[in-house]
Structures are given as C-alpha cells and as structure tokens.
Amino acid sequence: MKTKIFTFFFFFFMICAxxxxxxxxxxxxxxxxxSITVYAYxxxxxxxxxxxxxxxxxxxxxxxxxxxxSCGDAGQVLSRAALEKKSxxxxxxxxxxNNLIDGARKAGxxxxxxxxxxxxxxxxxxxxxDWLLTPYDWGQFAMIFDSSSKTAxxxxxxxxxxxxxxxxxxxxxxxxxxxxxxxxxWTMAAFGSxxxxxxxxxxxxxxxxxxxxxxxxSLFTSGEAPLVVSYTTSPAYHAEFxxxxxxxxxxFPEGHVAQIEGLGLxxxxxxxxxxxxxxxxxxxxxxxxxxxxxxxxxxxxxxxTLPASFAAAPRSEKTPSVPSAEVAAAVERAVGILSK
Amino acid sequence: xxKLRGRIASGAAQAGSVIALASLAxxxxxxxxxxxxxxxxxxxxxxxxxxxxxxxxxAFRFTLAESFLSSLLATAVGLPAAFFAARRNFPGxxxxxxxxxxxxxxxxxxxxxxFVLFYGRQGALNAFLMGIFGLSEPPVAFLYxxxxxxxxxGLYNFPVVMRTVSRAWERLPVELEEAAALLGAGKPRxxxxxxxxxxxxxxxxxxxxxxxxxxxSFMIPLLFGGVGVTTLEVELYQSxxxxxxxRTASLIAAAETAGALAILALYSKAQRSFGAGIVxxxxxxxxxxxxxxxxxxxAAAFLGAIALFFVGPLLAVPLxxxxxxxxxxxxxxxxxxxxxxxxxxxGRSRFLPALGATLGTGLLSSAIASLAAVxxxxxxxxxxxxxxxxxxxxxxxxxxxxxxxxxxxxxxxLLFSRGxxxxxxxxxxxxxxxxxxxxxxxxxxxxxxxxxxxxxLLSAGSRDAYVRVLLPLSSRGxxxxxxxAFxxxxxxxxxxLVLSVPRYENLAMLLFxxxxxxxFPEACACAVILAALAGSAFFLQDGDDNGH
Lengths: 340, 548
Description:
The complex is a heterodimer. Chain A is an alpha/beta fold. Chain A has 13 helices and 11 strands. Chain A has helices at residues 2-27, 42-45, 50-62, 74-83, 101-107, 178-191, 195-202, 213-221, 234-242, 272-282, 285-288, 291-295, 324-339, and strands at residues 35-40, 65-70, 92-97, 110-111, 134-146, 169-172, 206-210, 227-231, 247-250, 258-266, 298-299. Chain B has 25 helices and 2 strands.
C-alpha cells in the first residue's frame, strides 16, 4: 500500500513537471507583429460561426493574422473590455448591439471610427452617428409560431395578452438575454407609456422566462408552447437545415423592433491600424456574404445575394425603435411586474 | 539494500510532501487571490446608489428557501440510495454509484432539456398519461413552478448526498446496532438512535454541498422557478453585465458569500454536535444480498423509482443525440433516428484536440486537487486526535464554494488576461479540492483513534505517521476524491471561457457552443461522451472494493 501511495505521488509529480515544461514551451510563441485580437461572443467564434471564415479571408487579403477570443455572450465582451480598461488586450470588440451601445459608451471602452464603405450602409442601420460602432448585420425580433399547434396564431402584438394564450408563450429574461431585452423594447415601441399595463395582462400567458435564447427556443421546438420570441429569420434556419416550414414568423401591424449588431475599435487598442482594417473589411461583400448562413441575420450590405432559404423569412417594413438607455431603465420595472 | 530503499522512500516522502503543500498553496491561491481581486478591483467602478435593495432582499430569501428545500429533497432521495449502495448487493449497484457523475459533469442546460423532454407539457410522462387516461390536457404541470424547480434541483443532486453518505454507512460499526437490537430496540428505533446520529456528519456535508450548488445556480431557477423569479446570482449577473455596475455586483457578491457562510456555520455547528463519538473498527462490513419479501419490494420500488424518474429523463439525452435534422418537421415528439449528430461531432477537426484537452486538464486538475486535499488532511488529522482544529477544518474547505462563480470569474479576468491551460487546471482545482477533501476526510474519520495514536507513537514523526499509516488506510478516499475532481473538471465550461486560454477548447466548451447555437443532437452526443468519461472514473474506482 505504501508503494501505491508513492507511485501516486511520483505519477502526479511527473504530470505536473511535464505540464510545466509544456507551459514554458508554449508561452514562448510570442504574438506576431502583424496580428489583431478580436473579442466576440461565443457563437461568432465557434467553428460553424462566421468568425473563423472571416478571419481566414481577412488574413488572405491583408496578411494580418486574427486571434479570435470568445468571451461568452455579447454582454461579457463588454464587461471583459471594461475590466481590462487599464491595459487593453483587444483591438476590436464584436457583437455590441443597439441595446448595449449605451452601456458601451458609458464604459468608455471604444473609440469612434468611420470605416471605408460607411456611406453604403443604410441610414436606418447606423447605430451611432459618431460611428462608435459599425453595424455588420441585423434582424427583426418576432414571435415564432408552431403551426402544428391547435391554437390559432395571434394577429398582433397586443393580442398576445389575450387570455386564450395562457401559458402558451415562451419569453427570455430581459436581464440575461438579448431577445428578452428586445421583446421589452418591442413592447415599449408598440405601446409607448402603456407598456407596463400590457405586461401585467401578459404575465399569465408566459410559460417561462428562459435564461437565454437557446434554452427558450429548445423548449419551443420540444413542443412546450406554440409561441416564442426570436427573429423573423428563424424560419430560414429551419428551411435551410431541416427542410420544414412548420415554424413561422408572425408579422404584426405594430411593426418589429430591430437588433443591429456592431463592432468597434477598442480604446487603447495595441494595433489600431489592424483593427481599423478589420472594421473596413467587415463592410465588404466578401465578409458580408459569410453572415446570412452563419448568423441567420441580414447583412448590412444590400448587394449581397441572400440564400434561397431566406425566402421563408418575412420582413416588416415598419421598424420602430426605442433609445437603449430607456430600455435598460425599464428592465427593473418589467421584472418587477412579473415577480409581483 | 533495505537502507537504500528506505532512503528512496523518505526522499520520495519529502518530495511528495513538498508537492502536496505546493498543490494546497496553489489551490488556495487560485481561490483567494481572484476573490480578493474581484472584491477590491471592481470597487468604485459603477454608480454608488443601490436602488434594488428591496428586490435583492427578496431574491436572497427566495434563493435561501429554494436551495434549502432542494437540499432537503436531495437528502431524502440520497439517504435510501446510500443505504442500498452501502449495505446491500444487487445488480446495478455500481451503476447507481456512478450516477454521481451526472450532477458534476452534465451541464445544467442539458439536464434542463432532459427534464423538459420527460416532465414537460409534451414530455414522455404526460404523453403516456394522456394516452392511458384519454386526457386532452397534460396532467403533470408542475415543472414551471417553484415545485418544479425544487423537484428538478433536488432530484438532480441526490447522487452527491448518496456518495458522501454511502462510504460512511459502509463502515458504521455493526456492534452498536447489534447491541441496540440485543437491548430490545426495534429497527425504526435503531435507525433513529444509532444509525442516523452516526451518519449525521456525512449527511450534513452532502446536504451542504447540494445547498451551495443550488444557491449559486442560475440556469435551472430561471427556467423552472416560475415567471419573474429572481435569485442573487441573476441579480449579480445583471449588475455586472447589463449595467457594468461592478460596485453593486461586488456588494451583492459579498452579501451572497456572507449568507452562504452563515448557513455553512449552522451546518458546521450541527455537524459538531452530532458527529463526534462514533468510530468504527477499520474492517468494512460485508454487503449482503437483499432478503425477505418486504426488503425486496422496498428495493424494487425505490430503485425502480430512481430508474424511472432520474435515469428516465437522462435517457432523453442519448436519444436526442440520435435525432436527425429531419426531426424538426415531425410532430408530437417523434424523432427520425440516425447517427448524423455523432458523425458530425466525431468528424469535427476540433473534436480530438478537445478530448485531449479535457483529459489533460482533468488529470492535472484532479492531481492538484487530490494533493491539496492530502496536504490539508495533514493539518486536520496529522497530529494527535481531537486537537481542537475542528471548526476551521470543516469551514475552510467550504469557502471556495461560498463565493459566486460569476464573481470569481471577474477576479480571474483581472488576474490573467491570457490564461494558460495550467492556470486553468489550478483554477479548477481551487474549486474542486473541497470535494476531494470531503471523501478523504470521510476515510480519515473512520480510522479509529487507537490506530492514530499508536501510529504516532511508533513513527518517526507525525508526518511519517500520516504518510505511512493514515494515508494508506485512506487510499480509497483519495481515489474517490480524485474521481470527483476529475468529473468536475471534465464538466466545466465556465472557467475555460473566463480564463480565455488561447486556442484552447475542451469538450465542455464544445458542448456549450453546440447547445448555444441550436445544435442539440450534437450537444447531446457531446454530453453523453462527457458523462461517460466522468462516469467511468467513478465506475473504475468504485469497483476496487477489496483494496484496503
């Protein structure tokens, strides 16, 4: 038994030692002079996300290597940059959307940069007049309806509060999820100062507030409820990968609030020239054409041809908006109404 | 020759104790430094006023209540499970024990999905009941209420209690029970007056672990707790993420930690008043086969219920991994079966590196955690028995579990902007060594004082006695703890993301990415691999039943 314990110690000593040697070896690989560091959310950097392909194309074009760092979700991209403010590591922050821009501005982690090709971006998609963020893709929030359900679909946002939808709606928590916050913004845009009374009537119809889009959407496709908040482009995903039109995006007369995702140059970026080149690159069609089938969002470029599956995605011409600071301030109240 | 062997042995012991101490130091630093960094480094970074005091107080009470009830349920299910695992032989005993891998290595998102597929409105249970009784509405509708939350969390964590208790039950002295029976006590009375007090300490340890797990959990309370529910961890996340209000976040974190510590102090007090006094001989009791119709019926009912209500939902995970993309179009939960997801996953160029990263980090982290536990054991048990270090040795190991993972993550971010997988292993060990310690402590506790005293008397020193006598007697506890730490590392996707080790991806991160991008069949396949890795670590070491 004694020898067993010594073997145990010896074995683990060897592991620790070899690990240290490995650590030393790999830390010698210093950062190449011509490279940039990009902070992004996880589904952007995943190998089926747009990140790896964009990085490949950018490096082929400019010779600048890209290090993609996943920080979790978009909120974590921002909080990480805020924590590192004194000695920034990132050159570019990706995924800060029109709902997070107010926080990003207050945190002071970005500097404005108007990229080449900025003129081609539709004015409706410009998130910041000073180009603190450059939009790269966008989508509209929508209710997705399971057409196999026995319930008739709602015809308007207001009708979601109808008692016939009791327990039939899956939303996401506005505190932890982008579509959750988007839904709140949508109701504020549609009902103005009356939105709290809508939420009071809506409360009984919500099956659950999921912590994130993925959990909520998987509940929906498991048949737990016939309605979920997502994007008008979600049916394009089902058409592309599952070949079904079972799940439909409902277009409501109140219009649909948009999520516009942007990227920006980090304040104090180690390689600002490289960062600017990457932001320029994101507006070229070479980069934009990667986005539809990896993000299931619309590219900001109007000259990119959309894939056939996007025919399943309806689009509303009416895109109202609410200032992000107002939405952020309303989160407290919305959660307060629901927890009463 | 013997002299040389003796020298090598003492040299190895010397080196071993240095490494063990270094591991403990690393594990402690891995927790204390980032925790301090998080509390100090983020202070004054946001608005000063706390506008949400009322809601935070409500969140605190709710978190406390749901975690307590969940740990109660986990104990209620874990206790009989521990009895059967410790005292009876039956087919599937080792499988029952290896279920401990589930709460540690299967991520909450996957467990939540499994519960939805089984207990949900369109889940297997409701479909079955509606079919049998011809109902039009699903009869089981508690999942999205606070009952659903407690049910899911309590059931999901019962193996933690089962594991901490069953080892102790195996060695509970049979003489006391026999004496009680001789004096005329019936079985219920023996259980209440002899067995339960003897097991109080491990029961409370297990319950405390479950309590802490629930206290800091995030996903399951939001999904199942009812609309508008709020927990401290959600409030903390919101402050840090949405409003970048790190000051409020650190205040919430401090309140959270204080609350968790207060509860732990109560547990520790209860443990002290129960725990002392009952020590067994070292020999393990023989497990016997089930006998008598009542015992058989009880075992069949209990184990059947576990199989149906715990294993049943989990079976949804491998089943989902066999669903093809065409299943999206199918109605009523029907699946088109195929191996697409497995082919995709195994064919990914990142799969093998991720498997390697998982194994490498898991082994190193489990080694550090085990060595840290061994070193800590020397402080706690190295000297003469009952030297009054009780309260500290009970509380210190629980400290890492009493700090919000979100907050600890900020601390790590402040410390390292570029991690390395070795830091990752240390960081994981700093959070998992309490588990390794819990099982080692269980083994050390069961060494009779007479053996400890005589080993001290007959050895060159207390370290010698610890290394040559106490540790060998506790080898199974060490191995069991190593398996726990391995399982925790294997299932961890949070720290790798927080530390953002360049070009590093393990299977847990891959799983997180797959489920986050709506690739559920592949995510489920990945979860099956993770659970199998962690489960086989338990299965292997539980199998070593004669080695002591």
